[in-house]
Amino acid sequence: MRPFRLSSGSLLRKVLISSVRGYLGLTLRTMRWTFTVDPAARKLLTAQDGHTAIVAFWHEALPLTPALWWWAEPQNPTLRLHVLISRNRDGRLIADIVAPWRIWSIAGSSDTRGKNKGGAAAIRRMRARLRHGGIVAITPDGPRGPRRQAQQGAAALAAMVKMPIVPVGATCSGFRLKSWDRMIVPVPFGKGRFVCGAPLFHLHADGRSAAEAGQLLSAAITDAMGQAEAAMPSKARIADLPTEEFRPQPLDLMPSRLWATAATVAAPALPFFLRWRQTRGKEIASRVREKMGFASQPRPLGAVIWFHAASVGEVVSILPLVENCLRQNARVTALMTTGTVTAARMVAQRTVQEARIVHQFVPLDVPRWGKRFLSHWRPQAAIFTESELWPNLIGLCHERNLPVALVNGRMSPVSFKKWCNAPRIARRMLDRFAWIAPRSSEDARHFEALGARNLLACGDLKTVAHALPVQEDALQKLQTYIGKRPLFLAASTHEGEEEDIRKALEQLRNDVPDLLTLVVPRHPERGAIVSSLFSGAPRRSLGQLPEKTDSVWVCDTLGELGLFYRLAPMVFIGNSLPDVKGGGGHNPLEPARLDCALATGPLVHNFIEAFRSLGESVTVVETATDFAAWVRQMVSDPELRARKATLSQERVSAVNGDLIDRLTTRVLDLLKS
């Protein structure tokens, strides 16, 4: 009869893994632990100054070490722990048991007796993890002993990466197996002790041989183990080192269990919601399933970086960063997700020549849908943009050890106030980010107040975006067609603003009778409504051009702002008047690059740093009368208009020159982590 074996996908193996994990989790959670940690070791175990170490403990203490990780990770949730575990069946079983606790295995062990056990490949992976801020744990007497005798691999690895080794000893209430290592098996509701000794530097210094370095390491781990065992019954202090009691809990992978549960409960109704949006033109019928995590394209080969930008503004700001990443790493593909149809069309227009940019709609923040999305695309890094903070998606990335970053991070006063009502969720979510690049100093203060760590220097990507593109033949045709009529552009207007513009134009009718006003609604689907406000004004989306008798032309198309900014020498930036629903402004730097005199309403809090950088080159208008007065002045005084436009260009060209390159380096470094 052939011996019975547990196949990798067998039901019995799954039951065994689940049972062992459940028992081990129960015992470690209910144990009352006492930690004695050398101060220098603490800094390394929590990467307080960015430096980490190799952690070494005897194989017998392996079942206890998740508690050490649960102690360290909450102090720095950006940490990554990798454990060297044998690639045999028993090792793979252990790896699968601890993987849900974000303890990632590196398969391999020392190559002995001429057998390739993956040691060389494992060393390469450990070196890479250590050099990019991770922690690597090793049992130097594993996988088969001799017990408490360190083999040469750990000391050799430390010499290669020039990093110290932290010796760790651990014991607890329980019993020992009759195995070669006398492995400790903990029991629930007991007591346990960890001792983390002083880091060992330069084991091979002073001409020590590999054998001597191994003896020093063995002595240090055995000493830590002995101190832990001796202190167990008496709670004795050890060498006057800092001691603390701790009841461990694995770091909750999802920032909010309540949010995850609510999203799961709502999931059956969400397809009907998506179909309803589809009837209103806000979803694409053939792609609506992408928002449930179903991919519509195959995953490309090689590394994938996932960039998420919710809408048009975020797409415009992040595309130069995406393109720069692709230029600097020819083996990477960019997966770009958006939330809106207009943003999807923008990506398609701007990336038609770039085969290494794949677009999908982002799944709604439902755990099962997010898992489906991540399982298909398997990105190596995730980059969110501005205020796109989705707890479930971010938690799922953390669960998969997928590094997440936030670029152009925006935390408006309104959003900040809302997140302050859920501070624990906000902190847990922000803890998952490897780094956050805030858009402005105000955003940085808000993120920091909510508990964010690893904040980079401030810088707004919109300040360094390329000038908006234009089709030169279309520009020349329109310039010829319109001739010398004075042109005024109301860009990215929202509901409630067009009425103020109509009133202003009535005041200008006698003063500037041949004025042609271009109205570009932020959402092109509002074109018909906007046209009706101006007595059926011609619409560009229908191929209509303004006649000499038309005073308004509704430009309800997507991706043509670069054309209209070049046509019109004076521009009002929408979403900023007091009568608008919402408000907050739009990016003023796009028209500033294209020789435009600028005006805005008073509501600019979404782009306050950008407007601040432009200073007095931008005129603030609040009423239809202010509006009319500004247009009248710009038409009647071309020299003043030109000076305003030149000042705007000078201001925008002086801001954040190296921001794209700095962020590109940080994004590509995530691939190495």
Automatic annotation (TrEMBL):
<comment type="function">
    <text>Involved in lipopolysaccharide (LPS) biosynthesis. Catalyzes the transfer of 3-deoxy-D-manno-octulosonate (Kdo) residue(s) from CMP-Kdo to lipid IV(A), the tetraacyldisaccharide-1,4'-bisphosphate precursor of lipid A.</text>
</comment>
<dbReference type="GO" id="GO:0009244">
    <property type="term" value="P:lipopolysaccharide core region biosynthetic process"/>
</dbReference>
<dbReference type="GO" id="GO:0009245">
    <property type="term" value="P:lipid A biosynthetic process"/>
</dbReference>
<protein>
    <recommendedName>
        <fullName>3-deoxy-D-manno-octulosonic acid transferase</fullName>
        <ecNumber>2.4.99.12</ecNumber>
    </recommendedName>
</protein>
<dbReference type="InterPro" id="IPR007507">
    <property type="entry name" value="Glycos_transf_N"/>
</dbReference>
<dbReference type="GO" id="GO:0043842">
    <property type="term" value="F:Kdo transferase activity"/>
</dbReference>
<feature type="domain" description="DUF374">
    <location>
        <begin position="77"/>
        <end position="147"/>
    </location>
</feature>
<comment type="pathway">
    <text>Bacterial outer membrane biogenesis; LPS core biosynthesis.</text>
</comment>
<feature type="active site" description="Proton acceptor">
    <location>
        <position position="314"/>
    </location>
</feature>
<feature type="domain" description="3-deoxy-D-manno-octulosonic-acid transferase N-terminal">
    <location>
        <begin position="287"/>
        <end position="463"/>
    </location>
</feature>
<dbReference type="InterPro" id="IPR007172">
    <property type="entry name" value="DUF374"/>
</dbReference>
<dbReference type="InterPro" id="IPR039901">
    <property type="entry name" value="Kdotransferase"/>
</dbReference>
<feature type="site" description="Transition state stabilizer">
    <location>
        <position position="462"/>
    </location>
</feature>
<dbReference type="InterPro" id="IPR038107">
    <property type="entry name" value="Glycos_transf_N_sf"/>
</dbReference>
<dbReference type="Pfam" id="PF04413">
    <property type="entry name" value="Glycos_transf_N"/>
</dbReference>
<keyword id="KW-0808">Transferase</keyword>
<feature type="site" description="Transition state stabilizer">
    <location>
        <position position="386"/>
    </location>
</feature>
<dbReference type="Pfam" id="PF04028">
    <property type="entry name" value="DUF374"/>
</dbReference>
<dbReference type="GO" id="GO:0005886">
    <property type="term" value="C:plasma membrane"/>
</dbReference>
